[in-house]
Amino acid sequence: MHAARQKRPGSRLRRRSSERDVASHWRRHAAAQVTAGTLSLTWPVVLAVLCGAALHAGWNALVKSSGDKPVDTALVHFLAAVVALPLLLAVGLPGVASTPYIAASLVVHVGYYIALAGAYRHGELGMTYPIMRGFAPLLVALGSAGIVGEMPSPASWLGIFGITVGVALVGLAHPGQALHHGKALVFAFANAAIIALYTFIDGLGVRTEVASGGQALRYVLLLFVLDGLPYPLLVWWQRGPAGRRAIVAYARGRWPLATLGGMASIGSYAIALWAMTRAPVASVAALRETSVLFAAVLGTVLLKEKFGLQRSIGTGVVVAGVMALRLG
């Protein structure tokens, strides 16, 4: 019995060492692919990520059109988990090597939801959302060399910077007003950093899953199943008894649209993480944030919002950024 007890710690250490070796191997492998030119942003990957961005914009436009944005966001996340669960049972669980990344991502997502709630509490969605989504790709690009061993080329840097500026122009209707909302800005920029962090975690996680013989879809589905409760519980906890009754009543009429939003959310992130197994993380992260542009178009068509000169210029900058990314 004493000998058996002695073996267990060693076994755990060997398992942890093996997991670290897999992650380290993938980082070296990704760097080698970039050097060899095999990890590249091809047109099929670009088009797939843009489709994913459109899906992301779709469910965010759904939230933007609602009367209670926190409840709608919570409902989309909860129903995404409901949709993901049977799919996960069908395709199977991801491998052991990627589970530490899923665990880390779930912890970081709790911070994301807290910062998101703070940003929306102190500022409007139209101001905070473009900052959160637009600034994150720049942070991903800055950290790519040290974290995933991928150094963006000069053309890619131009593309990432162009998309960041374009997203800000498209998303921020009145950029000058943002300076007068200090608390909202703090939460928005903090959330941009959190988005960059979980992008790295999930990018490495899905690559580890694929490198160990698994599937990107398994990683995404388990992440959505486990991530479907924290934010809804946070919203539920923040409301009193009357507010909770209102949530139930609201959900009864809203669940069909919210289910579509949840499906769009799964599809959007699944495409993004799959693309990170084919192309540099920073490029995919920047392309994904063109969702702000698609959201502006949907807002103009469905919500009758003005597009205007600023958004037109921003659109041109985003398109130029996409082209620079592809050429880079």
List key phrases describing it:
single chain, 328 residues, mainly alpha, 13 helices, 83% helix, disordered N terminus
Explained architecture:
This protein is mainly alpha-helical and 328 residues long. The protein has one domain. 83% of the residues lie in helices and 0% in strands. It contains 13 helices and no strands. The chain has helices spanning 2-36, 43-64, 69-91, 99-122, 125-148, 154-171, 182-211, 216-227, 230-238, 241-275, 281-288, 291-302, 308-327. Helix 3 (69-91) packs across helix 10 (241-275). The chain starts with a helix and ends with a helix. 49% of the residues are buried. Mean pLDDT is 84; it is low at 1-7 and 30-37.
Task: Compose a concise summary of this entry.
The chain is mainly α. Helices cover 83% and strands 0% of the residues. Mean pLDDT is 84; it is low at 1-7 and 30-37.
Q: Radius of gyration, rounded?
A: 20 Å
- In angstroms, what separates the terminal alpha carbons? 60 Å
Strand residue percentage: under 5%
Classify the secondary structure makeup into a structural class. Answer: mainly alpha
What is the number of independent domains?
A: 1
The biggest sheet, with number of strands, parallel, antiparallel or mixed sense and barrel status, is:
none
**Tally of DSSP helical segments:** 13
**Strand element count:** 0
User: Uncertain runs with pLDDT below 50, 5 residues or more?
Assistant: 1-7, 30-37
Approximate shape: globular
Give the proportion of residues in helices: over 70%
The overall pLDDT, averaged over residues, is 84
Order of helices and strands: HHHHHHHHHHHHH
